């Protein structure tokens, strides 16, 4: 019997230790982790530079409150601002909280009520995050939703043009819809959407919670398309496992987030910001990102080469080290068999297998994962 609410269907493996790309189970077995803790451990488990930064801060102070200036917050905020081209950062504790901050800021700065998001999107489990999310299953049983949000088909420019009006505060979008099935935004759509937003005084919020911090081979996924969002939200990979989220925005938004307008007791916690600063120091390095992008290309080449011709595989999608393999069958039993064979991967929706390896994964590890995935899928073709 568990004392935890059964909100998660937990796997059969209990981790004892984790290091780099590996999780060591209490069952005595080793698992190659292509989940990165659901897109979090972008540098693998317990990278030594991040561990050292945490230890250093642990010996200084753990929490003093946001009444104090804290240079570790400034340091992390500066790195986030510089890499994103934005100016001001609000630190929260999670992705959903980062989105809450972005939504509140957009509403306050524009004085407008409506926020446009997209079908199949995922923006978190708080009331605003849930209402923003374009998936009914996330909302079931929770009653009426905030009316702020309108959900449009992803990549549909005409629908966006029709909906955007003087009541619209913001458009909030994922460049790659992660939880919704690894759907990549169309370049023309994103560029035109950004243009439409700026022509209409509508803020563009890019939810980079899963795609940010190098996941797609650039610091942030919006940078593939040369657009300039007004606000981005980040979490997951930012602390490489320590809880932290952030909303970063343009300088002109600062006046709307003055003292008392928004806050969080733990937001910008010094241990988490120390981890985030160390993470960004590594991930935003040009050579590191180049290598991550090459790893992503290698993964896609292998997936195409080995899986494309299988009947069970409908489509292979993604960007950088964010890959989705859409199947013609339910993904869960295949994922369970992959775990038995020593590789951990994720679902994204019912029929998509999602691979989110750490950015510093090796070619041998990619080869091993694709080999096991192929072998497992093959068995299903035969037995189906
Ligand atoms: C795109 C996106 N936005 C928001 C969230 C919510 O983040 P968190 O679970 O940290 O609240 C997630 C989490 O999966 C996400 O992928």
TrEMBL record:
Pathway: Amino-acid biosynthesis; L-arginine biosynthesis; N(2)-acetyl-L-ornithine from L-glutamate: step 4/4. It comes from the Bacteria. Its main location: cytoplasm. SUPFAM superfamilies: PLP-dependent transferases (SSF53383). GO terms for biological process: L-arginine biosynthetic process. GO terms for molecular function: identical protein binding; N2-acetyl-L-ornithine:2-oxoglutarate 5-aminotransferase activity; pyridoxal phosphate binding. NCBIfam families: argD, PRK01278.1, PRK02936.1. This is Acetylornithine aminotransferase. It comes from Mesobacillus subterraneus. The lineage of its organism: Bacteria, Bacillati, Bacillota, Bacilli, Bacillales. The gene is argD.
């Amino acid at each position: 019997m568990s004392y935890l609410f059964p909100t998660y269907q937990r796997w059969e493996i209990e981790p004892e230790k984790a290091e780099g790309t590996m999780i060591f189970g209490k069952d005595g077995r080793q698992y190659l982790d292509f989940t990165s803790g659901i897109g979090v451990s972008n540098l693998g488990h317990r990278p030594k530079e991040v561990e050292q930064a945490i230890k250093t801060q642990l010996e200084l102070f753990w929490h003093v409150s946001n009444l104090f200036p804290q240079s570790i917050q400034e340091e992390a905020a500066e790195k986030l601002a510089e890499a994103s081209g934005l100016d001001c950062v609000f630190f929260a504790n999670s992705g959903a909280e980062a989105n809450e901050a972005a939504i509140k800021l957009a509403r306050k700065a524009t004085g407008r009520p409506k926020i446009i998001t997209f079908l199949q999107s995922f923006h978190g489990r708080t009331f605003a995050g849930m209402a923003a999310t374009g998936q009914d299953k996330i909302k079931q049983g929770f009653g009426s939703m905030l009316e702020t949000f309108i959900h449009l088909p992803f990549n549909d420019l005409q629908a966006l043009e029709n909906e955007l009006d003087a009541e619209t505060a913001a458009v909030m979008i994922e460049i790659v819809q992660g939880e919704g099935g690894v759907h990549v935004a169309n370049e023309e759509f994103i560029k035109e959407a950004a243009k439409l937003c700026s022509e209409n005084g509508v803020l563009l919020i890019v939810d980079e919670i899963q795609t940010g911090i190098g996941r797609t081979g650039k610091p942030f996924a919006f940078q593939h398309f040369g657009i300039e969002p007004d606000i981005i939200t980040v979490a997951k990979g930012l602390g490489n496992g320590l809880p932290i989220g952030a909303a970063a925005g343009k300088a002109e938004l600062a006046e709307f987030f003055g003292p008392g307008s928004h806050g969080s007791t733990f937001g910008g916690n010094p241990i988490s910001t120390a981890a985030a600063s160390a993470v960004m120091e590594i991930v935003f390095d040009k050579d590191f990102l180049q290598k991550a992008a090459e790893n992503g290309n290698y993964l896609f080449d292998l997936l195409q080469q080995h899986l494309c011709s299988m009947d069970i595989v409908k489509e292979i999608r993604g960007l950088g080290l964010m890959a989705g393999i859409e199947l013609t069958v339910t993904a869960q039993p295949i994922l369970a068999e992959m775990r038995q064979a020593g590789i951990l991967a994720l679902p994204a929706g019912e029929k998509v297998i999602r691979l989110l390896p750490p950015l510093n994964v090796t070619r041998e590890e990619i080869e091993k994962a694709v080999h096991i995935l192929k072998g497992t899928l093959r068995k299903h073709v035969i037995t189906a």
